[in-house]
Amino acid sequence: MPTRNVLITGGSAGIGRACVERFAQAGDNVWFTYRLGADRATVLAEKLNAEGPGTVRAFAFDQGDWADHQRLLDELPGPVCVLVNNAAVGSATVARYAGPSQHERDEAMLRINALGPLWLTRKLLPQLIEQGCGKIVNVSSVGGGVSQFPGFRLADGMSKAALGHFTRQLAAELAHEPVEVFAICPGAVETGMFEASTLNALDPVEQAELVHRLPRGRLIDPAEVAELIFWLAGPDSTLLHGAVIDASMGLGVHPGLLTGQAH
């Protein structure tokens, strides 16, 4: 596979970090964004560049801020071949990006999770079409993208559902273009976002009980999700153009495993 230029938003932690590592290991040029944690992003880029074979660069990016979208695209060192729209905030982590009121946090969640990928994709799409190839992978969530989880912030599920619609609509419009688009909906992944939204409110015994209820009795490793994204960005995923994929290990068809009791 030839070297590709891959843009991954939210690449300094969690699923995004695992994606950066996976594409870099394959020898791709990986450009990833971060909002907080500049030191963490710098360390990751330096580590992967030292290991080779891919070239990795980190870019500060305030997703959902129109002016910052323009700045990021001006700073990118070349055309993008693969876009992974991964950056997002969750029911708990949105507090880092918005004021204390519910309406402020709802607005931030929809702006970052839904408008951000829309704006970034719209700006890059003409270039992807012109160069005759391209892959877009939108990272949604089992909550909103596939199923419903009572107790989670309404705007959270709405923003993730929007990514599903965005993927299907864009796929329909690109049916005869050389660009493919997909969405994946991970479940309970071992990330800081899931800890903040779900695990941190529980004591150790309750955490163990919750994990036991999940499919296979475990959390999903971010590297597992990254491997799926890497495959979707490859040459064999064409048949799944427009697919919104339940990548929750079965939680999407049995949400009560998270919200209810084990049986």
TrEMBL record:
It comes from the Bacteria. SUPFAM superfamilies: NAD(P)-binding Rossmann-fold domains. InterPro entries: NAD(P)-bd_dom_sf, SDR, SDR_fam. Belongs to the short-chain dehydrogenases/reductases (SDR) family. PANTHER family: 3-OXOACYL-(ACYL-CARRIER-PROTEIN) REDUCTASE (PTHR42879), 3-OXOACYL-[ACYL-CARRIER-PROTEIN] REDUCTASE FABG (PTHR42879:SF2). This is SDR family oxidoreductase. It comes from Kitasatospora acidiphila.
